[in-house]
Amino acid sequence: MNAWFLLVRRDLRLGIRQGGDAALVIAFFFLAAILFPLGVGPEPQILARIAPGILWVTALLAALLSLDRLFLADYEDGSLEALALTPLSLEAQVLAKAFAHWLGTGLPLTAIAPLLALLLHLDGAGYVALVVGMALGTPSLSLIGAVGAALTLGARRSVLLSLLVLPLYIPVLIFGVGAIEAAVAGLTARPHLLLLLALLLAAIPLAPIAAAAALRQALE
User: Fold this and answer.
1) Into how many domains does the chain fold?
2) What local confidence, expressed as pLDDT, does residue 156 receive?
3) pLDDT in tens, 153-208
4) For residue 67, with 0-12 CB atoms within 10 Å meaning exposed, 13-18 middle and 19 or more buried, which class applies?
């Protein structure tokens, strides 16, 4: 566990030093969301109706921006080969990198989502479902994205990563939006949130195994 937390801290420090990835993700999320009122009009009723979809789609696309660098820097400078030789299993390292990615992208997205919801006139009843859904859904985005990043490592085609990952993001998108819409309609959001939790619990063991297998193939 000590080595695991050291790897998380290392990736966080690298992300802070580079600085651009987290800022780019947050800026994209903010700018993409506030462009919708310019496109569909400033009517509060229309914006409130489409706000859940806007927030989740823009958050999903923002999370994609930094995925290609999840393993790329370590792969290019040889650090990935050195990490693979350490006693810490490759699966645990993938989990650590995905967790660090979530801390640098998913957590900030979750934090600023209520502000954007306010700008989009989202009904107040949907705020709790929005925050809880983001907190449960964004880690799944990082874990699933880690699999895509490992599969496309060395391919140097960012479009390929998006094509692989986006279909796997659809369940998270559906249940995340469904939770907000249910809460706004006066229904319980619990089924949708439980499904998001189930996706996360499934991704925690399965995604590192799949990503580690792809990394071993890339290192051969």
Assistant:
1) 1
2) 60
3) 866 655 777 888 889 999 999 999 999 999 999 999 999 999 999 999 999 999 99
4) buried
Best CA proximity match to 30, nearest among 70, 62, 74, 63? 62
d(CA 40, CA 48): 12
Cβ atoms of 125 and 184 within 8 Å: the answer is: yes
Place of tokens 């000590």: 2
If you count DSSP H runs as helices and E runs as strands, how many of each does the chain have, helices first?
A: 10, 0
Burial class (CB in 10 A: 0-12, 13-18, 19+), 198: middle
Nearest Cα neighbor of 138 from 199, 188, 183 is 199
Max CA-CA distance within the chain?
58
Measured between alpha carbons, how far is 69 from 45 in angstroms, rounded to an integer?
39
Q: Quote the domain boundaries for residue 106.
A: 2-219
Amino acid identity at 78: G
